[in-house]
Design a protein that fits this description.
alpha+beta, about 250 residues, globular, 6 helices, C8orf32 fold
């Protein structure tokens, strides 16, 4: 997946950050992305974009979710060790990540969100999975992304999601949203953070945080939170699309 993502179809991933944000592994199963299987309808008027979602009970979206879990666990252990003993930390990427978390903790409200959005946008350079891994769809944990110094849209979103949780943003106020570009035919992942009842989007392609109600050319497809992966009820059918890279806009 490139920046705004090289992939046959963008799939969602849910993260953990020291809290129980991930469903028990025994409840997970894999299936085709194009046939996500049954879903439990959950009317959530408070979701980003104000649209109802259905919580996926099974399906191919779980593949990437499951595949990332042990990497996230390793990251959290490393971050906890380094946070307790920074002088003895052997992971430069963990120290860089913690510095961003510290800067976020020192602020509040919109300033906290903006600090972390800007810092992670600057810390990671755009890079496709194909160029980095020789594969078209690789989900990376924050420390893996910081170690390489490059990533695509979901790598930025994963890193921001974890950093915001560590900086004190409540789980119920954070989402990863997968959106489809109605003009360019691309899929794109961003973080959505709720502040004073409004959802702000944190995008790797811009420094400014835009409210969901101001986004016109993208249609939300999937949303991830502490419950799991949900699909927007009114989302367009998932099909194979020709994805093109997009450059970051500051």
């Amino acid at each position: 997946m490139g920046i705004a993502c090289y992939s046959r179809a963008l799939r969602a991933v849910v993260l953990a950050c020291g809290l129980a944000l991930i469903a028990p592994l025994g409840q997970l199963s894999a299936a085709s992305l194009l046939s996500p299987g049954p879903a439990e309808l959950m009317k959530k008027s408070g979701e980003p974009f104000g649209q109802p979602t259905s919580l996926l009970a099974e399906g191919g979206l779980r593949d990437k979710w499951l595949g990332l879990q042990h990497h996230l666990t390793d990251d959290l252990v490393q971050l906890a060790i380094c946070e307790g003993n920074r002088a003895g930390c052997g992971s430069p990427e963990a120290l860089r990540f913690l510095a961003i978390v510290d800067a976020g903790r020192a602020r509040s409200g919109r300033a906290r969100l903006g600090e972390i959005n800007r810092a992670i946008n600057l810390a990671i350079r755009p890079g496709t999975d194909l160029a980095q891994y020789g594969e078209i769809d690789v989900w990376s944990s924050p420390l893996a992304t910081f170690g390489r110094g490059a990533g695509d849209c979901e790598d930025y979103a994963i890193a921001k999601f974890v950093a915001l949780r560590m900086a004190g943003v409540a789980a119920e106020d954070l989402r990863i949203v997968v959106m489809h570009d109605l003009l360019g035919g691309e899929d794109h992942a961003v973080v959505a953070a709720r502040l004073d009842g409004h959802w702000l989007t944190l995008d790797n392609r811009r420094m400014a945080m835009i409210e969901d109600t101001s986004i016109r050319s993208f249609r939300p497809s999937f949303v991830i939170d502490q419950r799991g992966v949900s699909k927007y009820v009114d989302a367009l059918p998932v099909t194979e699309v020709a994805l093109r890279p997009a450059t970051r806009v500051n």
